[in-house]
Write a structure and sequence with these properties.
The complex is a heterodimer of chains A (285) and B (283).
Chain A lengths: L16 H29 L22 H39 L5 H10 L5 H14 L6 H25 L4 H8 L4 H12 L1 H17 L2 H6 L8 H10 L5 H32 L5
Chain B lengths: L10 H8 L1 H32 L6 H9 L6 H11 L6 H7 L2 H7 L15 E2 L3 H7 L12 E2 L2 H25 L3 H9 L4 H12 L1 H17 L2 H6 L11 H11 L3 H30 L1
Antiparallel strand pairs in B: 1-2
Helix pairs in contact in B: 2-8, 2-11, 3-8, 4-8, 8-11, 9-10, 11-14, 13-14
The chains are: A mainly alpha (285), B mainly alpha (283).
């Protein structure tokens, strides 16, 4: 699971015309990529009265926090909902994925590879395709409209990807580890708990970040399973903020920044693990 | 609730496929997938190749290009809805950059895209296709490129080109330097090194990207929902939005379920061969 991003790039000053042209092209794309982020922050910092269409690209005239205090006031309850949902769902799905990954990697049985494909297919199933039976089921077990219901759904939907990430990790550990432990009289459970899980710390970090980002950013489950606005996660709250008739764009943009901050922080400080999970989640096998 | 099978059993599907809205959805899906894949994969490849020259600031560029991927589609959709505001946003940008002044020199009207609210369909295809396939004439939808889809493609590409770039960087890391050297020694120009050696070596990455980004586009919902919804004259409606609105707004469970099964089959048609192939290769 070595990330290509971890390679130290030997970078140099441009020497040829092609180098200068490349650098110019990169700068152009940088401006294009930063432009929406700039607009989000700048609009968020403006006071409501200063948000006019003709000056939308200008910097704010005063530094008073603009829409941020209002956005924070309206979004923090759903921020709490999102944390209460995301953290347990991340931890539980990672643990289940670790057990599955161990079995798929080190305790192969007849048909386990086919079963694994079926597992992995699970992560591609469109949410929409299961949403009607899912809502009916949650209603019948009284979890509809609750955060617990959302946690259960995210744990189950997370199992394919977490199993895949852990299987790939355990595949990199030599089988001799298990053989040696078995000769010493360890049971399979002992092998898993005493040897495999402690070694799997990097996989837990990668999987945890992957799941946290995915669950935090989810919208469809939040909006369909929890109709009560007070219990909805932040992605739904943000959409409600911008969907009302009189849109205060400074508050909405500040809200978009607030909703994006947790995953942005993860990306900034744990980017290496973020990229590893992202690539491992897409390159199968 | 009436739970008996309809007679014939596929009545719901037949009715759904006959509606103008569902036909719009399928048209939008095809147009979106084609343009989005071309833009996202093209930009991703270009960025990866530019970064591969290992110039100053590479890590800063790389990290900024991938950054939008960490945000949610809702954040992206909300931000880009503001940018594509039909009264300001990009319009002001076109003026500020002097594009409109250049257009005026040639006597052209200023570029003023009200894309999000524009129901126009570019490149109408019904007449041409109707000559080859007479059944096209029965369609209730104007085939072509809905203008309102363009902002969606731009927003989705902003978010996911970085992912394509990251995949290509990972792919480039395993293209051996000797291969390029050998091609140069054999007299290949720099252009040929790229088109004949490096890009062909990246074909497996391109295939993966078509599958992954393709299946994301088949399922796309959040971005459209936050940015445009069904759009003017269903110009930006997609199956994901259709299922949601039929099921939870119109409470037509049968239509919602039928559409969701079509989505599942489309995704399965793309993903199952891919998974099968990659697991067999790894054995």
């Amino acid at each position: 699971m070595k990330s290509p991003f971890a390679l130290s790039l030997r970078t140099g000053l441009p020497r040829s015309f092609a180098d200068w042209a490349s650098l110019a092209a990169l700068c152009f794309f940088l401006v294009v990529f930063v432009m929406p982020l700039y607009l989000m922050v700048v609009t968020g910092l403006k006071e409501g009265t200063n948000v006019s269409l003709s000056s939308m690209w200008n910097l704010p005239q005063t530094l008073t926090g603009g829409g941020f205090s209002e956005a924070w006031k309206r979004l923090w309850p759903s921020m709490v909902n999102s944390l209460v949902m995301t953290i347990p769902a991340t931890i539980i799905s990672a643990i289940l994925g670790a057990i599955n990954g161990f079995v798929f990697s080190k305790c192969k049985f007849k048909g386990s590879n086919v079963l694994f494909i079926v597992f992995v297919f699970g992560m591609f199933i469109p949410y929409q395709s299961i949403i009607i039976p899912l809502v009916k089921f949650l209603q019948s077990v009284n979890l509809y409209g609750t955060v617990v219901g959302l946690i259960v759904v995210h744990v189950i939907y997370g199992i394919p990807i977490t199993s895949l990430l852990f299987r790939n990790f355990f595949d990199t550990l030599p089988n001799e580890l298990i053989e040696a432990a078995k000769i010493d009289g360890a049971t399979l459970m002992n092998v898993l708990l005493r040897i495999m899980l402690p070694l799997a710390r990097p996989a837990f970090i990668v999987t945890g970040i992957y799941q946290f980002t995915n669950i935090w950013n989810d919208f469809l489950f939040g909006v369909t399973i929890v109709p009560n606005p007070k219990a909805q996660p932040i992605s739904v709250a943000l959409n409600n903020l911008s969907g009302s008739f009189s849109v205060d764009w400074n508050v909405v943009m500040a809200g978009a920044v607030v909703a994006g901050v947790p995953t942005a922080l993860i990306y900034i400080f744990l980017g290496k693990f973020f990229v590893r999970g992202m690539l491992a989640g897409s390159v199968k096998g | 609730m009436n739970l008996n099978l309809r007679d014939p059993a596929w009545t719901t599907y037949a009715q759904m496929f006959a509606t103008a809205r569902w036909q719009c959805d399928l048209r939008n899906l095809v147009v979106f997938i084609i343009i989005f894949l071309l833009v996202a994969i093209g930009v991703g490849l270009l960025l990866a190749l530019l970064l591969d020259r290992k110039l100053v600031g590479s890590s800063l560029f790389r990290n900024m290009f991938l950054f939008p991927y960490a945000l949610s589609f809702i954040v992206t959709g909300v931000a880009w809805r503001w940018i594509f505001n039909p009264e300001a946003g990009v319009n002001l940008l076109f003026s500020a950059l002097g594009i409109n002044r250049i257009l005026a020199l040639f006597g052209a009207p200023p570029l003023k895209p009200g894309w999000i609210t524009d129901p126009t369909v570019l490149c109408p295809l019904n007449d041409i296709l109707g000559k080859v396939f007479p059944s096209v004439n029965d369609l209730a939808v104007q085939l072509g490129i809905p203008v309102a889809l363009i902002p969606l493609v731009i927003a989705a590409s902003w978010q996911l080109s970085g992912f394509a770039m990251a995949m290509y960087i990972a792919g480039l890391a395993v293209v051996p330097e000797e291969l390029r050297e050998a091609a140069r020694i054999d007299g290949a120009t720099e252009w040929q090194v790229y088109t004949r050696v490096i890009i062909p070596q990246l074909t497996p990455v391109t295939v993966s990207l078509v599958i992954i980004l393709g299946h994301i586009s088949l399922k796309i919902f959040d971005l459209v929902f936050a940015m445009t919804g069904a759009g003017p004259g269903f110009a930006t409606d997609v199956p994901g939005v259709f299922v949601f609105e039929q099921t939870f707004k119109a409470i037509r469970y049968n239509t919602g379920a039928a559409a969701s099964i079509v989505m599942l089959l489309l995704v399965a048609a793309v993903i199952v061969p891919y998974l099968w192939g990659s697991v067999r290769r790894s054995r």
